[in-house]
UniProtKB/TrEMBL annotation:
Belongs to the TTC38 family. The keyword Repeat applies. It comes from the Eukaryota. Keywords: Repeat, TPR repeat. InterPro entries: TPR-like_helical_dom_sf (IPR011990), TTC38 (IPR033891). This is Tetratricopeptide repeat protein 38. It comes from Scomber scombrus (Atlantic mackerel). The keyword Cell division does not apply.
Length: 466
């Protein structure tokens, strides 16, 4: 039997979030899966996500919200495409059929609709439907979390912040998981540059729930964006015991820790974090979040002139099976880093051509609609840089710099593309590009004062061209 603390049919009804099933076990398992999703942590006492998902299907095979949460989680993981994965596509169809054949609540119908839209890559409409749910049911944390993820994949920073702000007043301290909204709200605040407020809100969350890994992660972002590296290192180290138990997010938090080392120019320390945590976890889980972190870390180190040796080849084993997925542009750009790093020209070409093909007839897929104007030229810029065609790389990247937010991810994650543009400009033969590189560094210094990385690059560019 599942822990009594999880909510049964009656408890969900009392919260105004009725679930259409007569199985108390199914309701509790739904709560158990929800808890793991919000806490970024597999509860091994219940067999983790997988165990709970199998159990919920056994408890009530026709429980619509059981299907919504299990299939929805696989979709927002972005590790598989319904275009290529027939099993996943059929899970989506089955959920829709179940919903149409039963008398379920309007809220549950909207959940099914949002999941189906998301499965087609229509992220904006899916988020609109989740927001519709939240207007009437502001404490539906599944709608809130799915919307949060959807906005993240679109780089929709302001909606991500406001989505949480709108529901906060309805969340009373006695409602399960209420403290976790602090970390979510903090993340939206920092992505819209309210760094002081973001830090304050995240710390309030951590005072209530010290092991909230997402709130820890928000603070890690603040120290990264403000280049307060020593503060960041001290913070991550001091709370490591609290956040490393959140297995779903632990690798990402270690990645943030390593970024501080890269910022300081302590490359050996960064590689040690890669080898002992980020790279290892990525190979173990294959999760997209862990994978893109591993890709970007090696790419950052290489841009800084560090040899990462055979690590690209090992990482290629993880990314290669996803070459044709094209679920998000963000993932594609990171898979390309590995193909280029491992000198797999055929794979790089296949990735680019696949994206070009999908850009021709994107249908409702928001990422494919963006591919032609954003994803493809960004991929091309990386390929040109890789071949030493730095001026061409600048010509492709520079016009896109204020639109790159559209590939999704966070400011900290997308900073890799800003760095790429600076490196390309510095290495370009074109003197106008070289001056541009300096301008970009001056601009970077204004936003992030006291950044050791910016200082290093400025010294390098002066040494190159004086």
């Amino acid at each position: 039997m599942i822990a009594s603390s999880f909510r049964d049919c009656q408890a969900w009804r009392a919260e105004g979030l009725h679930l259409s099933t007569s199985s108390n076990e199914a309701c509790k398992l739904y709560d158990a899966i929800l808890n793991q999703y919000v806490k970024w942590r597999s509860d091994e006492t219940m067999g983790g996500f997988e165990g709970c998902i199998s159990a919920i299907k056994a408890a009530d095979p026709n429980f619509v919200m059981g299907h919504v949460i299990s299939t929805g989680l696989e979709l927002v993981g972005t590790g598989s495409s319904t275009r290529l994965n027939e099993r996943l596509a059929s899970d989506v169809r089955r959920t829709v059929e179940l919903a149409n054949s039963q008398d379920i609540t309007p809220r549950e119908k909207l959940h099914v609709k949002a999941m189906e839209l998301f499965s087609h890559g229509n992220f904006p409409k899916a988020c609109n439907v989740w927001e519709d749910i939240l207007v009437d049911h502001p404490t539906d944390i599944l709608a809130l979390k799915f919307a949060h993820d959807g906005y993240f994949y679109m780089g929709a920073q302001t909606p991500m912040r406001d989505s949480v702000a709108r529901v906060l007043p309805y969340w009373k301290p006695h409602i399960p998981l209420s403290s976790y909204l602090k970390g979510m709200y903090s993340f939206g605040l920092l992505e819209t540059r309210f760094y002081d407020q973001a830090e304050k809100v995240a710390m309030e969350g951590l005072a209530l729930t010290p092991d909230d890994a997402w709130a820890v992660h928000a603070v890690a972002h603040v120290y990264d964006m403000t280049a307060e590296v020593d503060k960041g290192l001290k913070f991550m180290e001091g709370r490591e015991k609290d956040w490393q138990v959140s297995d779903v997010l632990a690798s990402h938090n270690y990645w943030h820790w390593a970024l501080y080392f890269i910022e300081k120019g302590q490359y050996e320390a960064a590689l040690q974090v890669f080898d002992s945590q980020v790279g290892l976890r990525c190979k173990a889980t294959g999760s997209m979040l862990d994978t893109v972190d591993a890709c970007s870390m090696l790419y950052r180190l290489e841009m800084e002139g560090v040899s990462v040796k055979n690590r690209w080849k090992e990482l290629l084993q993880v990314t290669l099976p996803h070459t044709d997925d094209h679920v998000t542009l963000f993932n594609d750009l990171h898979f390309l880093m590995v193909a280029l790093g491992a000198k797999e020209t055929g794979t790089s070409q296949r990735l680019l051509e696949g994206l070009q093909e999908l850009a021709k007839e994107p249908a409702d897929n928001q990422q494919h609609q963006l591919a032609g104007a954003l994803g493809v030229p960004m991929c091309q810029a990386m390929m040109e840089y890789n071949q030493g065609n730095y001026s061409r790389s600048v010509e492709l990247l520079y016009p896109l710099r204020y639109r790159m937010v559209g590939v999704g991810g966070s400011d900290a994650q997308r900073d890799i593309f800003s760095q790429l543009l600076i490196h390309a400009a510095m290495k370009s033969e074109n003197t106008h590009h070289q001056k541009l590189g300096r301008c970009l560094l001056v601009e970077r210094e204004a936003v992030r004062p006291n950044s050791a990385l910016t200082d290093r690059l400025m010294q390098r560019t002066l040494a190159l061209h004086d």
